[in-house]
Amino acid sequence: MKCYQMVFLTVFLSSSCFATGDSLYKSSCASCHGVKGETKAMGKAQPIQGMKSARVVKALNEYGSGIRQSMLPVTKAIKSRFITTHSEKEIQEVADYISKL
Known about the structure:
- The protein is mostly helical.
- Helix content is 64%, strand content 0%.
- Helix 2 crosses helix 6, helix 4 crosses helix 5 and helix 4 packs across helix 6.
- The radius of gyration is 16 Å and the shape is globular.
């Protein structure tokens, strides 16, 4: 019985350590894009509020691969770092969250 309890506890704690789309957005995106995606990041980009999920994923992947360039090097650096430090699942969760803003 204790073995099952230990497995359950391990699985529960492991799953609770993964960030969700809303928490990732709030910690990584909201400072530039606004709490609801309503802000023009760096005063240049269009607001991302309600942007379709597939479009967000595509844009992030294009920044990560270098296909999409920015006039501001800091923008590319921020998005490239986001892509390289988060899984595809996390990126999709952020994109889904943005699409519902």
